[in-house]
Amino acid sequence: MSNRALLEVIALDVEDAVAAQAGGADRLELVTDMAADGLTPPRETFAAIRAAVDIPLRVMLRKSDGFAAGDVSVLVGAARELRAEGAEEFVLGFLNPDGTPDLTAVEALAAELGGCRWTFHRAIDRAADRDGLRKALADLPGLDTYLTAGSAAGVEEGLPVLVAEAARSGEPGYGARILVGGGLALSHLPVLRGAGIDAFHIGGAARPDGWAGPVSAAAVAEWRAALA
Fold it and tell me: What is the value of pTM for the model shown?
C-alpha cells in the first residue's frame, strides 16, 4: 500500500480549482451542472482552470443526465475541442439500455482521445454485469481508472464489492486503478485503505455549504490529512 493516496476533487470553476489545490488535492475532475450529475464543462472554463492551477485535470465527456451517450459525434467534437485547448485527461462512461457497456460510444471516444488517460466513471455502478464490463473495456487505450462506489446506492452499500475488486488487482479487466467516490465518508477510509485502495474522489464532501457553495480548502485539507 502506498503511503500517500491520490485525492481527486470535483471543480466547477476557477474558485473551486484554486481552493482544491490549496487544500492539497492531487487532481481535479472538471464538470458543469451537478444537477445532472456532471456534464462537459465549456472549453473556456477548462482553459481558465488550466491557467489557474498546475495539478492534473480530468475533464468530463457527458452531454446529458443518465448513462446514455446520445449523439456520439457531439461527444467526439467536444473531446477534440478540449484536446485542442490542452486537455490531456478525461472522464467518460456510457451504458446501453440493458446495462451493458456502450462500446460504440466508448470506443469512438477512446479513438479520438488517442491514448490520453481516462476514467470510466460511475456508470459501472449501474452496469448489469460489472465483471463483464471490465473485461469488455480492458484493452481500450488510455483507460487507467474506474470511478466507483461499488454500488449505485453509494460507498456504504458498495464497500464489500470495492474490497473484493481490489483483491483482484492484476487479473484480466482489473488492471485499472479503483478511484472510490459516491457518498464517500472519512469513516470509510480505514476499510478501503486496508484493502489496498489508494485513490479517492470527493464532491459534496469538499463543500460545507453544499453544491450552491464553493470548494473549501480546509475541507479538502482534512481529507488530505486523513489520506497522508
Answer: 0.97
